[in-house]
Amino acid sequence: MSIIDMIETDRLVLCSWCEDDIVPFSKMNSDKEVMEYLPKCLSLEETVQFYNRIVAEHDRFGYGLYAVETKSSGSFIGYVGFHNFDFDAEFSPGVEIGWRLAKEYWGHGYATEAAKACLDFAFRRKLFDKIYSFTSIGNHRSERVMQKIGMKHQGFFQHPSLPDGHRLKEHTLYKLELSETYQ
User: Fold this and answer.
1) What integer pLDDT is reported at residue 178 of this predicted model?
2) Single pTM value for the model
3) How many CB atoms lie within 10 A of CB 84?
4) Cα–Cα nearest to 170, from 180, 156, 183
5) Tens digits of per-residue pLDDT, 86-111?
6) Taking CA 13 as the corner, what is the angle to CA 101 and CA 24, rounded to the nearest 5 degrees?
7) Are 29 and 35 in contact (CB under 8 A)?
8) What is the rounded distance in angstroms from the CA atom of residue 136 to the CA atom of residue 170?
9) What is the pLDDT of residue 179?
10) Do the beta carbons of residue 65 and residue 87 sit within 8 Å?
């Protein structure tokens, strides 16, 4: 059972997922521009599998990646939230904060607004003490969100899930100590 019904900001609602989110989620995951810094676009079947992993992570931890809707229209615009990762890296295992929005919602500050609300929620609930975010080199939009939410650059790493020579192998890493930020 999730510890969240919803997180609200001035313009957004972050909430649990529902099956109605699958179609717009799939549309977003099949957009080449949205997925430019990820290994590949996802099919409907792959999106459903991802949706099921998101729901399972919410059930297991009580938090996760939240479906994001605008208050003005109630439209699904993407996700923002937390993911527990455990891959072969010096800083692993840990919790990352991440986001993915449909491209028509880029440039409005939604990712930053939702991410700040998530961090505040995590601190108030004492979910974890530190959080990471990472992306492939060149994803300046995501890296800018990391900076705007107060994360500090930690360096670079080679993502172990990608084969050597892959164009997205090199990642940039950010971290935020919640106990230092929210005092």
Assistant:
1) 80
2) 0.93
3) 14
4) 156
5) 999 999 999 999 999 999 999 999 99
6) 40
7) yes
8) 6
9) 74
10) no
